[in-house]
Amino acid sequence: MFSPATKKSSLSARKNAAVKRDDNSQLTPVAENRRQLHDSPAAGVPNRPATGTPAPWTSRLSVLARIPPKGGEKLGEQDAVQPVYVGEFPQVVREAQLLLSKDHIPGDVSISGGMDKDTSLAWIICGNRVFIWNYLSHGASRKCAVLDIPSTTMEIGDTVKSSFHSNSWLVCVVNWNSLKRNARRVIQQSNSVGVVICNKKTRTLIFWPDIYNVDRISPLTCVAFSEESESAYLHHDGKSISSKQLQQGKNGSINSLIASAIPDTTNGCIALACSSNGVLWQFLCSPSGIECKLIEHGMLSLFSQESDHNPLVASKGYPRSLIWHTFGGSSDDYTRQFFLLTNHEIQCFAVKLSSDFDVSQLWSHEIIGTDGDFGIQKDLAGQKKIWPLDLAVDSDGKVITILIAIFCKDRVTSSSYTEYSLLTMQYKSGVDIAKPIGEKILEKKAPIQVIIPKARVEDEEFLFSMRLSVGGKPAGSAIILSGDGTATVSHYWRNSTKLYQFDLPYDAGKVLDASVFPSSEDSEGGAWAVLTEKAGVWAIPERAVLLGGVEPPERSLSRKGSSNDGSSQEERRNFSVAGNIAPRRASSEAWDAGNRQRAGLTGVPRRSPQDEESEALLGQLFHDFLLSGQVDGVLDKLKNSRAFEREGEINVFTRTSKSIIDTLAKHWTTTRGAEMVLSIVSAQLGEKQQKHQKFLQFLALSKCHEELCSRQRQSLHIVMEHGEKLAGMIQLRELQNMISNATATGFDSYSGSDARVSGSLWDLIQLVGERARRNTVLLMDRDNAEVFYSKVSDLEEVFHCLERQLEYIITEEMSIVVQFQRACELSNACVTLFRAAMQYKSENHLWYPPLEGLTPWYSKSIVWSGLWSVASFMLQLLNETNRLDDSARLDFYANLETLSEVLLESYSNAITAKVERKEEQGTLLEEYWKRRDTLLDSLYQQVKKFVQGKLQDSAEENEEQSKDILRKLSSRLLSIAKRHESYQTMWSICCDLNDSELLRSLMQESMGPKGGFCCFVFKQLSESKQFSKLLRLGEEFQEELTMFLKQHPDLLWLHEVFLHQFHLASEILHGLSIAKDERPISAVESSKLKLTLADRKHYLNLAIISAKAGDICDELKMKRMEADLNILRLQEEILNLIPDNEVKQSIVKQLLPPVDLIELCLKIQNRELSLRAFDIFSYTSASFLRSNTSLLEECWRNAANQDDWETLHQNSIIEGWSDERTMDILSETVLFQASSKCYGPEAETFEGSFDDVLPLRQQSSEVPILKNTNSSVEAVLMQHKDFPDAGKLMLTAITLGAVGIPCNEWYPMQ
């Protein structure tokens, strides 16, 4: 690592070295392979094409020598830390490499290449041609674009470059669909890509607007330095540039190139390039031409770096790197930020992607200075020079990583060395990344991570060849590419730095570039991908980095000291991780490589060595059973190995079952094409099914099944689910075959491609297979369909892709007819999987453990979410069914109906399992009910449209014919509705058919714990005011009617009258009339019965009539009802007396409690209302009077305040009132009238009397010792302000009112 490549030895020298190696050495090829290495390439390697290019499934050159002989280490142990071969170069690239090697001396041949993460494109520049292909696509579908570099661009200026020296080009891929989501390319490769390349030395830029139409659109060229641009150097902010600097501007080489598409243009892009002398260039590229100009902003400081005279900080060859700053949350598509790495700082710029394309500097941060808190501290002892080499930014745009090299000298030993480290910076908290403001934008995220503490000293040319990338797995790792063709992954794990070196043999070529496999999840990247010079594309699994990483060595390892050179045995032992890299195809154990790693990172229980031993023992015992059929001692052996202690996915029986159904056939290859792959799928799946059935027999005969059934139900259930999934996969393969045959007889409506590999089901298979390939890099060289049909245990991923990526399987660009066809195909696939699982379960039900509380795989949220995604899309298409003929419409309806049944069944099973586990299921029930009603209601509306359409076609309108058609078309829908208690659909069908017998039949069959369909029917009849029909129907369902009426007392009284239970009807009506408005009429339903005062009076009158109609009439209850009726009347009178305002509007329809009515009377100063308060008291109970004595006293105070007693007293003295005159005037006072109402001879009270609570007069002159000092009306009046003068008049008024004797009896005529 980090050292220049030494001179390569010839092929013959390597052959001789291989012969001299010990045959027992792991690096020594087996005899047959050694013979192949000495023979000619074309004749020595089996299956090699005539061109001499190795077959993609055949190990090549000395890479072949690194495959150990059979019987060596186990796959999981030896291959855990090895990279994985992903894919071969396109054939056209191989041919160009072979031709180039024949025409030139090997030492003079140079090949460059790279990878683009966003588009998943890789490129190789071989000679004067650029080859571009998608490295994610498998060989059978891979296509390669070939671009010819114009010969005129090879000789410009003072530099003459041979065409075969191709490593002097910088390449940028421009995705014209960058604003769109790129998941569609899983199915269909993007056909909208441009390419910009720039020669480092000559500064020549070439632009291909469309790489897939090079025959029609010629490339455009431009030179960065011209006479017109020279003036840009002459002045900057009024300051002149020296002639030496001007010469550097002409001679500087390009270090970095970036490009971006320009919005709202056709194949237009902007490219930015920085040169080693501090110059930034801007290129505006379009199909019509290229405009080049110098960016002047900040250039003076870049030119003046060399005048710093600081020997510690490197200045030559800067700025080094340009990268785009992509961050989430940016809503402005017309502005992009980019970073520029100089010799001592990071600069951030913004470029406008419109109009004048201005470039402005946003901020800069010094990473090499005197303050170590903000970066690297310089001027430390031992430091000689510091080089910032490259920088990279994470996918969120928040963390920036810089690769640093420091030349040091040990003052003790006087030895010189280079220290390599990674500096990570992040945006400060609170900084707006889109619009950063402030001086200090960045801060250190973590201490500097030292990669190599003491590496050998290299020259600047080698240092500047290093490149840095971030974003791959493991999370937080970085990969460093060096000029000698090695790639090293650095990962900070468990408080230490671990290094993993990817280093291929010399004859496999250098590492050209590295990228990250796109992950199936948007939030994270995938494994590291590596492009080699001759050995194709490789992947570095996350597991390999974690398990194969080593501590940083004291000295770096170049190719001279790598494990691929047989002369450096000692260094190979010190850094053994670099050795034993074998290109291999993933076997059935490849699935576990990713799964085990994910378990360790996500908190899933990890498997112990004991688990591994138990699994190995179980595998051996099962293998012996297949050979001999004997199971003697199996149960005891497995018990002794503790095989029954783990539950769930990590159980050894579950894992063995999974390995059976997930076996990856070794003879499947991508180069044999999709037709060959699919032709052997059925046979392979059949073999798996037979072996899985044998495994079940093994469990039964060995009594393991019995043990699992009693102790580990979940594990046994998973084993049986594996059989269900395998049966579903077999049926899905048959469905695909049937669709392919049917399509082959006609034509493909959309893609026009091969019928065997087209259609929505095929696209779905590609999506699921692609997702599995990306999650397990060991499978990257496998075909998508091959991976899909092999990964049986992950059948749920089908539904995950339907939920997430349905829009890419059925696009808006497709015709409406094709959308219908593809939706039906997906629906049919989902139904096929579900039915196959159910059929397997029915046929093998005796094998299953008790299922209480266990959720089937087809009832998990991932499954019903995918089903709902398809169903909801089909619901949207229902509005477009008028474009189809009758047969197509009926077929589409039947597919949606069947899919709805499967979806609802999935929900039902999940809810049942939750209930059995006593878990909360309210949210799931709500979702289930909502989607059930949506689906079935839409389906029934479609049925009605079918009926209307058929009647319109008929010459005569026949009601009976309409009902017959409706009955026929809705029969299955009615069955689904009955199964899932969709009462609204059942009711609608019965009403439209006007079939009372069908209604009664459904009511009999759908009786639930809460009344079922009966209560729903009663509710519908009640809402439609069909009370008589409701009661007549209730005679047949008396229990359900009683249950319904208890929840609806507004109808219960009518039922009691119907049964001549008048006293019960009276009680119900009385309760209704005085029920509070806030109390729901039903304890089950949230709806409330809103009654007006008129309604309450009506119910009370009916209650009185019912009470009188009964055989037994309770006088006390009758009196109470009459009192309540009087209170209602009083409320009406009170409301009529109060003025119209907001308060009145808010209470006009409410039933006010007596206390509220009395307080309302007191609040409004009115003579009539003051008397009404006493009327309310008279109709209440004795307990109410006792508990509201203070309120009664307040009523007397209010009554006294209604008259001006002081004036009355003065008038009586001045006018000298006679007794008759006094009587007449006092009878008009409120005190007199209130006394007459409460204490007079005609006073009426419901219960008790006012004297019991508040006597009219005090019994003695002494003050009673009571809690309430106001023990009488007289005592209350004594507190009145006018009582000292007019007290005699007040007492006379209440006394006369209580006596109630007319005036002529008190004062006879004289």
TrEMBL record:
Domain (Nucleoporin Nup133/Nup155-like N-terminal): residue spans on this chain: 88-538
Region (Disordered): 1-59, 551-613
Compartments where found: Nucleus
Nucleus in keyword set: yes
Residue ranges with Polar residues bias: 1-13
Keyword Nucleus: yes
InterPro entries (UniProt xref): Nucleoporin_Nup133/Nup155_N, Nup133-like, WD40/YVTN_repeat-like_dom_sf
Chief localization: nucleus
Keywords of the record: Nucleus, Transport
Family the entry assigns: Belongs to the nucleoporin Nup133 family.
Protein's UniProt name: Nucleoporin Nup133/Nup155-like N-terminal domain-containing protein
The organism of origin for this protein: Penstemon davidsonii
